[in-house]
Design goal:
With 178 residues, the protein is α/β, with parallel strands linked by helices. It is 40% helix and 16% strand.
Length: 178
């Protein structure tokens, strides 16, 4: 039936978006996981430790001659709200994903400068530890910051870093911010 299910929802959203202006993102569903074919994977959440992890991962990827994959996980609570969706309308998951991807790509450029050209940014709709552990299944190295955006500043090691150390299928490099 037209307008039902996820494809119907997407078609309805596409019609509404075309009435409001151009749409910039068109995949049929958001990415729920990422598994690289080797390389260095780094998790970034926008924190100072995330920036330090990005720089360390770029250096390791260059030293090892491996590709660099930046993973930004997101949920509805942590996604970037699309600027082109008017207030009062709820963005689709695809629009949240596109806005989060654009923001993370800009951050990688700011943190890594010229080295950002070697990085591939992936946004994954999943909790951070799950997204990173899935990527670590096929990566050569996983790089994480000691702690991210969580509210427990007194902790020396955040919960995502701890989960990665305990459960990653590859080597893990944990980086402190200065």
């Amino acid at each position: 039936m037209p307008g039902s299910g996820s494809d119907g929802h997407w078609q309805a959203r596409s019609r509404r978006a075309s009435r409001m202006g151009t749409m910039t993102y068109s995949p049929k569903r958001e990415s729920a996981e990422f598994r690289p074919d080797g390389g260095v994977v780094v998790g970034d959440d926008g924190s100072a430790c995330g920036a330090a992890a990005l720089r360390a991962a770029a250096l390791e990827a260059r030293r090892r001659g491996l590709p660099l994959h930046v993973v930004r996980s997101w949920t509805l609570a942590t996604a970037v709200r699309p600027a082109d969706v008017p207030q009062g309308l709820v963005p689709s998951l695809l629009e949240f994903e596109a806005a989060t991807l654009a923001t993370e790509e800009q951050r990688v450029k700011e943190v890594l400068g010229d080295a950002a050209d070697a990085a591939v940014v992936h946004v994954v709709h999943a909790p951070p530890a799950k997204a990173l552990l899935t990527a670590a299944e096929t990566a050569d190295l996983l790089v994480v910051g000691t702690r991210g955006m969580g509210g427990f500043e007194r902790l020396l090691l955040g919960s995502v870093a701890e989960q990665c150390i305990r459960h990653a299928a590859c080597s893990v490099l944990v980086v402190r911010s200065q």
